[in-house]
């Protein structure tokens, strides 16, 4: 067996970090066997004593439901109030993410939180068979690692900020020539890449892939099936965000999204009230990060929507299961009758047009939509308009625009749905 340098480094790093990595990994495993939700109380007590925003709660009973639901905008307004007075900002790890409106949101982690996040990634990578030190290709933007580090970690970085045939050709060559077994990619990049390989007549024998993780963006079920058939390996979805970590991950057995209840307390709340949503109902995802003490995120409305499931998963893991991630709240359209039309329903329409390679739908007003379409082989335009009309409520105006490419954001993500309605953007 070839020496896996990365694996060796992992254990040394774990030892000098007081075994936080291996302990977190063990705790996650135990949590899925007993299905218990880890307690938020230590964090809540800490917050009322050290975080100015929560000082007012000092004299009331300490329970999660008494803490206000916050979001990026609330925190951004006066971020100083959210810092713990027990940390100095200079010693913290600073990260950046962007809200639906593109304004950056800065978050700060203590060392422990950063280690827990690393451990989460290692733990969930194993669900697809990928362990520390295995060769892998990663789609990521803004990663600046030394050649030595990439060599030790057996990592190839492919930045998806700007995609082209040349880009896909390079990624394909890397995977094939270097016999890379694992690929962690953006949902839409995996989709486009599998189409690219399909057009070139690739089959699973062309690759040496053993597992793929789809992250950062949605991957529709049909796109997953195509990728699995071309690459000949499981493709599992990961639900993670930059400011938190891995919130849920699909199991290899049934492909259902198991919530990470060991490191987060996730509430699923109704869209227009603070009441818990019922299974089967579209809900807001409200996260309490149990390991983030420097700038705690407590009852943080992350802006994503999901439907929870009350069916126990056949894989044997216990705890909450997400049935569907229905996308960002900002990435939904509003139909003629005021109904929310989710990303999933839109992608279902597109599924019936296999010649469409990429698309982007923009809602201008309640009755007006623009659809940018990338297709090199043509598609039935009147049929597409009819299907969208049926989905959005009949008498709406839909304008199709053929484009060569749909530009990606700086984060490398592509926005499939954009809602530009004024009353709507104020909500998100
Ligand atoms: Zn499962």
TrEMBL record:
GO molecular function: phenylacetate-CoA ligase activity
Enzyme Commission number: 6.2.1.30
Keywords: Ligase
Database matches in SUPFAM superfamilies: Acetyl-CoA synthetase-like (SSF56801)
Source domain of life: Bacteria
Classification via InterPro entries: ANL_N_sf, CapK_Type1_Caps_Biosynth
PANTHER family registered for this protein in UniProt: CAPSULAR POLYSACCHARIDE BIOSYNTHESIS PROTEIN
UniProt-recorded name of the protein: Phenylacetate-CoA ligase
Species name: Marinagarivorans cellulosilyticus
